[in-house]
């Protein structure tokens, strides 16, 4: 299971890097062609836009996996363990609901634009909207995995916030980057005295 997770993470990082590299090459190449040779690649701008959209959505998946999305945990850190668990479950259920709405809207837009073609590249516009389906399903799997880890944990020190701390580098899925009760106590001791 961990090997497949690592392979998926590597594939995600490669897809992000390739999108960024191809987008940079297209834009730079088009600028050079336009200014030096008074010509250009007609589909470069449109393809760069598609790649940028894919880059952003794939990056959002990676950020969720590494718990790097912005969040406020000041109130949650003040709660007792059971309160933290309740807030964690409620917040993840709300995230799942939003992901369901996102999936539903992306699915409808993808089907609606299946026959529509983009003017320059000729790609179906479903290519643009299809990333929403991939993103919502991938994020839902990550959120469900986080919920499963917390609800099935027998470890009383299981982390209950989904925000990585600024002083913690992102780690692989085997290690937890989330805050525990001990690190919350250390932080409150530093702030208090």
Radius of gyration: 21 Å
Overall pLDDT: 82
| Helical/strand content category | mainly alpha
Helix content: 55-70%
Topology order in helix (H) and strand (E) letters: HHHHHH
Percentage of residues in DSSP E strands: under 5%
Our measurement of the CA-to-CA distance between the termini, rounded to an integer number of angstroms, reads 44 Å
Number of strands: 0
Summarize the helices and strands and which ones pair or pack.
Blueprint: H1 2-37, H2 44-65, H3 74-78, H4 81-112, H5 126-151, H6 181-192
Helix pairs in contact: 1-2, 2-5, 4-5
Characterise the protein shown here.
- The protein has 193 residues and is mostly helical.
- It is 69% helix and 0% strand.
- It has six helices and no strands.
- The protein has helices at 2-37, 44-65, 74-78, 81-112, 126-151, 181-192.
- Helix 1 (2-37) runs antiparallel to helix 2 (44-65) and helix 4 packs antiparallel against helix 5 (126-151).
- The radius of gyration is 21 Å and the shape is elongated.
- The relative contact order is 0.12.
- The model is unreliable at 172-187 (pLDDT under 50).
In short:
This protein is an all-alpha fold and 193 residues long. It has six helices and no strands.
Characteristics of this structure?
193 residues; mainly alpha
